[in-house]
Design goal:
Oligomer: single chain
Strand order of the largest sheet: 2-3-1-4
Shape: elongated
Number of strands: 4
Helix content: 25-40%
Structural class: alpha+beta
Organism: Rugamonas rivuli
Keywords: DNA-binding, Transcription, Transcription regulation
CATH architecture of the largest domain: 2-Layer Sandwich
Protein name: AsnC family transcriptional regulator
Order of helices and strands: HHHEHEEHE
GO molecular function: sequence-specific DNA binding
Radius of gyration: 20 Å
Number of helices: 5
InterPro entries: ArsR-like_HTH (IPR011991), AsnC-type_HTH_dom (IPR000485), Dimeric_a/b-barrel (IPR011008), Tscrpt_reg_AsnC-like (IPR019888), Tscrpt_reg_AsnC/Lrp_C (IPR019887), WH-like_DNA-bd_sf (IPR036388), WH_DNA-bd_sf (IPR036390)
Length: about 150
């Protein structure tokens, strides 16, 4: 990855809706060069996907919870099993294995507290390997960024 690739990635992280021509102009390369590089960055997995970021408060009531999960058994296959279980739920936006402390931290987005309780029941209470669940509920989001420095 060279400086041109870094400029492309930075520009796309700010606004991925740019046309190829607009992007090429912004990063000071020709349109064919830009297209070829974006294609390579995508095919190599550097660019995982391009999405629209939705403001949760604009689409209805929402509650963000940061949830710590500790498992009874931390064998690799049991950790992978739990990850697959929570990844299948649309309310789980992010899942991290962490250390030290709990085994996982999840970021979940639900409509309200009853929806969180339903999520907790289906994802945690029904799992025999879940030992402890600790949830924190966001009262205000002062920063949200998806950009990674490259």
């Amino acid at each position: 990855m060279d400086e041109i690739d870094r400029r492309i990635l930075n520009a796309l992280q700010v606004d991925s809706s740019q046309t190829n021509s607009e992007l090429a102009l912004a990063v000071h390369v020709s349109a064919p060069t830009c297209l070829r590089r974006v294609k390579h960055l995508t095919e190599s997995g550097v660019i995982q996907r391009q999405v629209a970021i939705v403001a949760p408060e604009k689409v209805g009531p929402s509650l963000t919870a940061i949830v710590e999960i500790s498992l009874d058994i931390q064998a690799a296959e049991r950790m992978a099993e739990f990850e697959a279980h929570v990844a299948a739920d649309d309310a789980v936006l992010q899942c991290y294995r962490v250390a030290p402390g709990p085994d996982f931290v999840l970021i979940v987005q639900v409509e309200d507290m009853p929806a969180y309780h339903a999520l907790a029941h289906r994802l945690f209470a029904t799992q025999t390997n879940v030992r402890n669940v600790k949830a924190y509920f966001s009262t205000f989001r002062s920063k949200f960024e998806t950009r990674i420095a490259v």
